Amino acid sequence: MKIGTFNFDSGGVFIIAELSANHGGDINIAKETIMAAKEIGANAIKLQTYTADTITLDSDKDDFIIKGGTLWDNKRLYDLYKEAHLPWEWHQELFDYARAIDIDIFSSPFDKSAVDFLEQFDPTAYKIASFEITDYELIRYTASKGKPIIISTGIATIDEIQDAVDICRAEGNDNIILLKCTSAYPAALEDANLRTIPNLAETFGVISGFSDHTLGATAPIVAVTLGARVVEKHFILDKSIGGADADFSMDKAEFSGMVQAIRDTEKLLGKVDYSMTDKKKSHGSSHAASMCHKTLRKAMSLQKKIFEA
Length: 309
What we know:
This protein has helices at 27-39, 52-55, 77-84, 91-100, 112-119, 136-143, 158-170, 196-204, 218-225, 252-269, 278-308, and strands at residues 2-3, 6-7, 14-18, 44-49, 104-109, 126-128, 149-152, 176-181, 207-212, 230-234.
């Protein structure tokens, strides 16, 4: 499978910088964030494509007020999404900009109209967010476009995940990536359950990865050691920009450190290797020579004691 120029057959981890609401309502901040993601080594920048009207209702009823110990408690869903959404009129400029500086770009659609809108930009992939994994019609319609489809599994049962995978395959789309995700913002480390990552790959016959909402870089690094081929993390140019996602997003320095740690982890993991390389032979010879030298010194010392006795 390939996403843009990234070939999963060649190994390595595909790192996605999630722009989300971290644009501050300013297209120039969005473009600067895309450039920063490129500079620090992310493989892709991901947008979210919705409006308050396409994702929720303008309602004051209790079901539309956020609760549950989140960063946004007591806020109306409509107001949150109105503040956080990326204006649709920015998409063309952002897609053109990302491609001009050679970083991959795609988005999460939240309804069919967003898929239709995004198709004009020929994205290299689509991402289905955790809360949309049971929107089977959205998954079916998105999968029908034939692009790789990345699906977060944050609120799904194993049967619902199987349904989503089956729907994609029924549309002739087997380019599926499933991401372990904990849909809490921020997510507690003890809720990450990263051992699920290799199980997703094994159970569903797909590439698996990690969409992370924990704080810091520990969870993504551990995820990579467990076989995550994709890591997605919210990225903000500077936390002083503020916004709905700022508190659990990585700034440029933090994200850069995570990217470097992941690339170092890839080197450390390497491959299963019992071969005798020139380096091993060289080290072995040096070690043998050292041991011979030590043995010779011990023998000479013993001989000296015998003669002195």
